[in-house]
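Suppose a colleague, Dr. K., hands you the sequence of a protein chain of 438 amino acids and asks what its three-dimensional shape might be. Before reaching for any lab equipment, you can write down a predicted structure in token form. Begin with the sequence itself:
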Amino acid sequence: MTQPRPEVLQKLTPVLTKRWLSPDAWQIGVYERLDGYQALRKALDVHPDDLIQLIKDSGLRGRGGAGFPTGLKWGFIPQGDGKPHYLVINADEGEPGTCKDLPLMTYDPHSLVEGAIIASYAIRASRAFIYIRGEAVHAARRLRNAVKEAYAAGYLGENILGTGFDLELVVHSGAGAYICGEETALLDSLEGYRGQPRLRPPFPAIAGLYASPTVVNNVGTIASVPYIVLGGADWWKSMGTEKSAGPMIYSLSGRVVNPGQYECGLGITLRELLELAGGMQPGHQLKFWTPGGSSTPMLTAEHIDTAMDFEGVAAAGSILGTTAMQIFSDQDCPVYNTWRWLEFYHHESCGKCTPCREGNYWMVRTYRRILAGQGTYADLDTLQDTADNIFGRAFCGLGDGAATPVVSTLKWFRQDYLGYIEGRTAPRLSEKSLVGAH
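The predicted structure, expressed as tokens, is then:
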């Protein structure tokens, strides 16, 4: 393994990750010694509208996948409407490969709590919720303890720091349904209903939780807020690119020497990130990778110098998503990996809409036939046609996410499919997997 070049090492910009390695960083005493809750004091001294304008000026975009401008979303909340306002933090991190929110909540939960208080003050919300994935038991314990400490210190509850601002913050654990990562399904689940996406409009900003104006933001988005309040919009924009401002936590997994979280300014390339991660594992050559989790179109080794920001990845034909970068080599099979992802999406489909419910059901069975050595040329047309009928026709974006790896592998790696169909590649599945697949 070679050490990263100094100019590449300089691209590491620890902001959200700067406390992760500090001993007991999840405890409020340590957090306060490391600038914790200083941003809250500063924020409560200004008008809420000025905070919204600050976030707009910073160029902060959602860290949950869509990249929507955060300040603009906050500004959508109608003021003076006489209704309660809510902040809901989407911590239901469940997509394969996505793993940046979990360590943040585990090692630095107070940054999320402080960001939630500031964001709630800005949108005039008196209740906030953190909806965390049910399997994230340890992170949920850390969060609940952080909330308890914040109440005891006077940062939550009534008359926060003597300003007259009241806020109740609830940590709610889901039941492990991937569909609840979709914001409206999350809201239904939070209300006690089965988690299924809602028809929009109305959008959550007008009729969200309990039919009231609601902001739904990702963990990384809200945790960024205290840093912007302390450092200012210009400081935040000094990292990243003109249209994609600030640092981003890139999660590298797969065939790299040192998988993990690397926080760099938006716009760094995959080549540079691989260098930071120690390169590919010995004996492996890059073949394909996901820029933002399994629901984003795969890219190839030819895209190694793609700028990892919202515009750069879109220009390459994919989506930045959650920057969950799964790295695969020439020893990995794109057909097999797509089947594994589809098994997940098929299992996790909420069943509300026909394209996702039926499309994933049949695509999984088609992949089983191909991987068992019993596929046909017609199966490739079936997969393309089925994916096309899911994409843009499913009730929510999670259906689109299931179709994208199918379309992208058919585009880049058609020969890998033909290898199974024409008998040049040994079957990966046995005939037992074909029970019910015809």
